[in-house]
Amino acid sequence: MFAFAGLWAQEVLNKTLLKADKHYIRKEYAFAVLDYVKYLQEFPKDYYASRQAARCYDKLNDPYNAIDYWPVVAECSDVTETDYLDYAKCLLANNRVPEAKKIFHYLSKSRNSSVAAWGKTYLQPSFTLSDTASVKVMELVNVNSGFSESCPFIFRDKLFFLVNTKPGKLNFKADDQKANESIKVYIPKDSLSFLPSLLFEKLQHLNIRGQLSFSKDGKWMYFSKALSNKEMGIKSKTPFFKHQIFALNLASLNSPFPEIIEFEHNLPEYNSMHPSLSDDGKRLYFSSDRKGSAGGMDLFVSVRNNSTWTAPVNLGPNINTNGNEVFPFVFADTVLYFSSDQRPGYGGLDVFTVEYERSSDVFSKPAKNCGDPINSRYDDFGVFILKDGKKGYLSSKRKNNTDEDLYYFVSDR
Fold first, then answer.
1. 194-212 per-position pLDDT tens digit
2. What's the CATH code of the domain at 183?
3. What residues does 153 pair with on adjacent strands?
């Protein structure tokens, strides 16, 4: 009788774990973690369920709860170096830096080059820019709200940015076409204070996904949005969506049918987003998971050849990793800023910078972390640098890790 009851209980728990895995596969992390936690109530030392619970909380951008499950993973004989790396990143997000550094020291001896890179680089003081101590970061006034404000861009002396009404962990895959994001335009009173503007209202209907970029001559705005397989002319039993890049002729904005041109190197089976146009209008940088990517999202560049664009080229290992490299911004045609969640940093997405070498037409030096205080233990991205190169704006989750806000930064040097 008791043996039967035990078998029945075990079967229920196995079904709970199976249910959790199904939710996880469908990316329903909020539901999956409930079942993993339920399973762990009976088997609190289970390696697999503990790791999955921690990963779910990571996907939900909740390092506070994830940290409760990584120690069990780390103490299990099945633990991997990737587990240790994820644990260390979670420790950083919880501001437990000394503990994280111990793990990074251990990982620096790994035979896995990408894992060892985190360990070696993080323990070197030179992995960040040397002059970041002179930088001050300040929150904008009358702009930030309970929603997510991100991707600032100064155009025609006005602040353009995106507002997302459903904050959450940043996702670079197009899951649907729900228009949660919209463009806001504000008029600056000074570097920190802004007032809402009623101009450019028609931009609200473009279903923007990710950052904007304007041509220096003020004629074009580059953006990305999610398209369904039907809109892209692809037949599929399972509907899907992909981010694609477009250019809007701003002179036609208020006409009944604004002129919107599709980027000629969009690929319906891949995501392409976060366009950034160089000042001379000759290079378009963007993020994509297309063929040739190292993993996740990589940065690519396409060069204007008269009226057409050349085939996109991957920016290479000095910039791209097997993680996500996103939100590129090119300053003065010589310096590229972007964010990465895989390069060694302070946690989440960090901002990196690398100089463009005109003589060789490549980025031949490894990107450098922009350091503290530009970067925090949470997501930092969407940088815009003003003309003098010493001031700019960025978006960050540093305040509460629940939604992005806009910040102004200035260097005294």
1. 999 988 888 887 888 889 9
2. 2.120.10
3. 160
